[in-house]
Every structure is written in C-alpha cells, then in structure tokens.
Amino acid sequence: LWAQMGKAFLTGGIICCIGQGILNYTGNVLGMDPQTAGSWCSLILVFASVVLTALHIYPKIVKWGGAGALVPITGFANAVVSAAIEFKAEGRVLGTGAKMFTIAGPVIVYGTLAAVVYGAVLWLKGLLPV
C-alpha cells in the first residue's frame, strides 16, 4: 500500500510540476495573462495525454503510477481516448463516436448539472435581500 501511494504521489507530482512549468513559461516568458496561460496549460496537458495514449505510453504510466496518473486532467483525456481506440473496429459512429463518451458522458452531465445548480443558487442569492 505504501509503495503504491508513493508511486501515485510521485506520478501526480510530476504531472503537476509539468503543468506548473507550462504555466510559468506561458505566463513569464510568453507574457500571457493567468487565465490564458491556464487555458494553454490545460490544452497542452490534454494534447500530451492523447498523444501518449495513442502511442500506448500513457497506459504504462497509469499502470505504474495508479491514481496519480488517473486523477489529473490527463487521466480524463486518457480515459476518453482509450475508449475511442478500443472500439475503433466497430466503426466511426457506433464504435469510436458512441463508446468514447462512456466515461466522459457522466462527467459532462454531472458537471453541467452542478453548474446549473450553482448558478441558480447564486441567482437566487442575488434576488434575496441579505
């Protein structure tokens, strides 16, 4: 258990350090504002995860690092791409298109639902005198 936790901590830490390096580079060297730098950081991490998954490298990282590789945004991208690659033989629509969202679908649905609930609470809070 302790070895698995150490590997997860190390893997997640490396991914986060790479993300921080991207943030520092885009913010300090390229002069982007924090929001734009954060967007580029997310984009680059997701793209790297997709490429590494397609090259069958990211699954090896996940096998070694466990939750440390699955929890960050890179793990979500890996889950979506892995399902798409796995069901590619079934065709573009019923294989790749449909199965790609087996993991992403619930995340998108509940994320959208949570945003609506939070927005409604803030809207009602603004209507009520405090």
Q: What is this structure's SSE topology?
A:
Layout: H1 2-29, H2 34-54, H3 58-65, H4 67-70, H5 73-86, H6 92-99, H7 101-127
Helix pairs in contact: 1-2, 2-5, 5-6, 5-7
What can be said about this structure in brief?
This protein is mainly alpha-helical. Helices cover 85% and strands 0% of the residues.
Give the proportion of residues in helices.
over 70%
Quaternary state of the chains? single chain
Distance between the termini: 49 Å
Instruction: Note the total helix count.
Output: 7
How much β-strand is present in the residues? under 5%
Query: Taking Cα atoms only, what radius of gyration do you get, to the nearest Å?
Result: 18 Å
Low-confidence stretches: none
Name the average pLDDT.
84
Order of helices and strands: HHHHHHH
Shape: globular
* Main sheet properties: none
The count of β-strands is: 0
Class inferred from helices and paired strands: mainly alpha
